[in-house]
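User: Show me a protein chain along with its predicted structure.
Assistant: Here is one chain, sequence first, then structure tokens.
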Amino acid sequence: MSFLQILAPELTDRMLADFLDLESSLVVTLHIQSIDQSAAIKNIKRKITDLDAMKIQEQKKAVRAGYDMDVIPSDLVTFGNEAKTLLEDLQSRNERMFLVTMLVLNTADTTQRLENNVFQSGGVAQKYNCALRRLDYQQEQGFLSSLPLGLNQVNIQRGLTTSSTAIFVPFTSQEIFMDGEALYYGLNALSNNLIMADRKRLKNPNGVYRKGTGTPRKQQAVRPQAAQGRGKGRAEVILTVVYHRQPNMERGLILCRQ
């Protein structure tokens, strides 16, 4: 059992997909808890006040030591700017605060294979400037939190805004899988699922055939129409194909019989 320590200032929606694309057996669990808007704003203002107090203390130490009072630790400046930006997002950009806990459960048949799976998962997290930390002395709590019970027993949470939390929602693609007289049109580039559709039942039933150099345009246009014609029990399908290479032959008729 491990938890994801989010260190990156920005996240991408490909991180969860890369975790799920691993060939090893793993379970990714997300616990997301919403915080009341007024409580979140009050908490951030309190943090900003604490940072300002720490900044004043560092300036007093600088004056007593006899050097410039503007020389303060860079972490205080960074945290202060991030807190002010977060407060502005909550007040003016309709953002909300969420407490997120991301757990990763790796399983394997042997100890060596389990170590390899954990190492691969840690590589994915490191790719996105995050860290995958093991739950020392909390393996049982982490396992119970990974079960589909909606119970989080791991008190390790990361505060994220609405836009940052939406990165972990895996619904980033729309699937097209229609029943009935549907044809195979390829694979979804994101989810690798089949695209089965009857284009005449879609909002826009038009079809566009893009031809490259050396590609038989005539066969690409005939096969889907002929398949739909056979599926609906029609006796024949007549297609009109325009020939551009032969100026004397403007149009030709292709007859596809069942």
